[in-house]
Amino acid sequence: MNPCELCSSPGGDLLWQDDRCRIVRVGGAEGEGFPGFCRVIWRTHVREMSDLAPADRAHLRDVIDAVESVVCRVMNPDKINLASLGNVVPHLHWHVIPRWTNDSHFPAPIWANPCRAVPVRAMPESGVLANALMAILGDSR
To answer: What is the pTM of this model?
Structure first.
């Protein structure tokens, strides 16, 4: 069995974490054209939401909602996409993706082929996202 990349690495630029999950900003090719793209990753290796106890599911949903709120406020996108696929990495994680009607893939998913050039958008500083998340979720450090 191949090692799980979300168990062995942060999965992005760490913005916030607690004892159950972490929030990372996605960079590199995957995040290109989608500044503010974040991922919420469950700390232990589970495959599905239904693998979590009800209180853990509620906590994860609260964290996802906080990330969505922060990304909306900081990035002012036209839409937010939430996705939990796990087909390639079967470790419970959610993508929180800001979308604009003129982004490179709109209205298709970001994993489809692009239909236009990637527009230039400012990448938010990690500290801006982290501070906004801490204001909602608390400082768990």
So the answer is: 0.91
